[in-house]
Design brief:
Layout lengths: L2 H9 L23 H12 L5 H4 L20 E4 L6 H10 L4 E3 L9 E3 L23 E6 L2 H10 L6 H8 L11 H4 L3 H25 L2 E4 L8 H14 L8 H8 L12 H7 L1 H13 L18 E5 L2 E5 L2 H4 L8 H7 L4 H5 L8 E4 L6 H12 L10 H6 L4 E6 L2 H26 L6 H19 L4 H10 L5 H10 L6 H8 L11 H5 L5 H4 L2 E5 L3 H11 L6 H6 L4 H5 L9 H7 L2 H10 L1 H11 L1 H9 L1
Parallel strand pairs: 1-3, 1-4, 2-3, 4-5, 8-9, 9-10
Antiparallel strand pairs: 6-7
Helix pairs in contact: 5-8, 8-12, 11-12, 18-19, 20-22, 21-22
């Protein structure tokens, strides 16, 4: 029997066959085992279900996978990535009278352990801690805010050579740092490399432990403000604590208040994305998967696609799916955009709805804010969310919804005009605020005006995407350069344009009506949808108000709306005017938009064909 087979058995966890002496050193003369024994173990391992391979790399009992360890399994293991607060949690359990060890202690505790080192096991790796031939009964995953934990791991040099141990069982890919240089170098490149390694460790270690952990919790939530997390700690104490343990809720709350890691984040998501975008996206996915939010400004488009992990060459490896990895290199796609924008955010943020509510679907640059405010008088709810579609609102309890329609080219040009107006207004406000002749009262009024103008149209604006867009695309030629970059895969700014466009709440003027706002609407739901046209919004809303007995005073409402110009379309620079459109978009880009949004144009003409004659008369 060759050393290759022997190594394979060691890697797969052959040490669980305690009756056979096996060592996994590189010395081929050590651990003499008969060919028959090796073959028998190999056949036994291959006969187990594929899912059992996870357990072969743990210190946790799993009888169905014939993963037993030595002696009777007992106690619990809390694990996760390094620098997650393991020392704090160990001391908390010890404060409850439990015999719990930390990975830096001399021996395993009888009741359990808090150790990242024992979260991912691979035969052949030298464990820089106590050995655990006796397995644990259950495992739990403890996480920490990645923006705090990752820089903490990258900057800390006060413990053992964590990187070499972590790389022994997980696939970090090629790295420029070594164990020695990671602790001594202070260059910008080395600092980035250390962050990259810590980021990968965060994803790899946590993604593995979550595969077999009973439950997960965040170390920041181990306090009286998060009773569900304290319930997990209390249950662990009750189940695994010896007779010396005192699982007292009052004492638990007091001990949990000693958490010493309430530091500010040491890194931001854009920095992590610039260092290793795929792993930054995976870290965001992990964060959301375990119940924490990632700010809309920071969400990467790849986040909505998930990620996959498995063993490759016996190393735990994680990667984005191929379609996510190539997302920003492909042609602009409505399907890619809708998926990447994580439109489930709408349902997560919706307040309780009742069957009597009439709400509007916020199709950007169709008078959606006007509709939202108008209907708020009757429903009591001002809902203006560009990522909520008709089906979601109806499914969550709305009685009726109103969808406003406009030609897709007009919507996009109107959005271009609004972006430019907002940008110019911001510059004017900034200049005014810097003026020494401006009074404090005037400055506060200017700030308020800027804020009101920004919120009047967009509902939620992804400021992160807006900032990225502003860095690359000048608003003097935004109309051409941005759409050029979206359309043309060979444009040097194509990736940046897609990165901006695919983020949640970014440039919602590109969100399609047919493929998104009307997506999933059933025949029954369609009977509870009314359509209105932007060009005749007042007349259409009067009609809908009568049909639904809303008693809306549209005339009085419009007198108080600054956006009446949008409603009446009396502006000499109307975005519905073909000549005006050519001032903002090239004919090639207009043709491209009409091709991409052909279904929207047909749907618009089905319900609002009269708007075309109005636009032609105005022109």
């Amino acid at each position: 029997m060759t050393w290759r087979l022997f190594s394979l058995l060691c890697i797969l966890g052959a040490e669980r066959y305690a009756e056979t002496e096996i060592t996994c050193d590189d010395d081929t003369d050590s651990g003499a085992v008969s060919d028959a024994s090796l073959l028998q173990m190999n056949l036994k391992l291959n006969s187990l279900p594929p899912a059992c391979r996870i357990w072969q790399h743990t210190y946790i009992l799993n009888a169905s996978c014939e993963h037993f360890g030595l002696g009777q399994a007992a106690g619990f293991l809390v694990s996760g990535a390094s620098r997650s607060g393991t020392r704090f949690l160990t001391q908390l359990f010890q404060g409850l009278g439990m015999n719990v060890s930390h990975h830096s202690d001399a021996a395993r505790g009888a009741d359990g352990a808090v150790s990242w080192i024992h979260g991912l096991h691979r035969s052949g790796c030298t464990v820089p801690s106590w050995q655990s031939p006796r397995f644990f009964s259950k495992a739990f995953l403890m996480l920490r805010d990645p923006l705090k934990q990752i820089p903490s791991r990258a900057e800390s040099t006060d413990d053992f050579d964590w990187l070499e141990f972590a790389r022994c069982a997980a696939d970090f890919g090629p790295t420029t740092a070594t164990a020695d240089t990671a602790d001594t170098a202070d260059t910008a490149d080395m600092a980035d490399d250390r962050l990259r390694l810590a980021l990968k460790h965060y994803v790899l270690q946590n993604s593995f432990v979550e595969k077999y952990a009973e439950k997960s919790f965040w170390v920041e939530d181990v306090n009286a403000h998060h009773p569900a997390t304290l319930d997990i700690i209390h249950a662990i104490c009750e189940e695994f604590g010896s007779s010396h343990a005192h699982c007292n809720d009052v004492k638990l709350r007091k001990l949990s208040g000693a958490l010493p890691i309430h530091s500010e984040p040491g890194v931001k998501w854009p920095q992590l994305a610039s260092i290793d975008r795929p792993f930054a996206a995976m870290a965001q996915i992990l964060t959301r998967r375990h119940g924490k939010d990632v700010a809309v400004d920071d969400q990467l488009p790849e986040m909505a696609w998930g990620f996959d992990c498995d063993f490759h060459n016996d190393l735990w490896s994680c990667a984005l799916p191929p379609e996510a990895g190539s997302l920003l290199d492909r042609s602009f796609s409505l399907q890619d955009m809708i998926r990447s924008k994580d439109t489930a955010l709408c349902a997560e943020q919706l307040p309780p709805l009742n069957g009597s509510m009439v709400l509007s679907v916020s199709v950007a640059r169709t008078g959606s804010e006007t509709l939202s405010q108008m209907l708020a008088e009757s429903s009591g709810l001002h809902l203006h969310d560009h990522q909520c579609n008709a089906h979601t609102l109806l499914e969550h309890g709305a009685g009726h919804v109103i969808v406003s329609l406009r030609h897709p080219v007009s919507r996009i040009v109107s959005g271009m005009q609004w972006h430019t107006r907002l940008h110019n207004l911001s510059l004017s406000i900034e200049a005014a605020l810097n003026s020494s002749n401006m009074s404090k009262i005037s400055k506060s009024q200017a700030k308020a005006a800027a804020g009101d103008d920004e919120q009047s149209d967009n509902g939620q604006l992804s400021h992160g995407a807006y900032s990225l867009q502003k860095e690359v695309f000048s608003f003097d030629d935004f109309n051409h350069s941005y759409v050029d970059a979206l359309r043309n895969t060979s444009d040097p700014n194509h990736r940046i344009a897609l990165d901006v466009q695919y983020r949640p709440y970014s440039n919602s003027i590109f969100m399609p009506v047919v493929d998104f706002y009307m997506k999933g609407v059933t025949n029954e739901e369609l009977s509870r949808v009314s359509f209105v046209c932007t060009c005749t919004l007042k007349e259409d809303m009067d009609r809908v108000s009568n049909e639904l007995n809303l008693n809306l005073d549209t005339e009085a409402f419009l007198q108080h709306q600054r956006c009446s110009e949008i409603l009446t379309h009396e502006s000499v620079s109307s975005s519905d005017d073909p000549e005006v459109q050519l001032q903002w978009l090239s004919q090639r880009n207009i043709d491209w938009i009409r091709e991409i949004y052909a279904a929207d144009e047909a749907f618009y003409l089905q319900h609002c064909s009269h708007c075309e004659s109005i636009a032609n008369q105005a022109a």
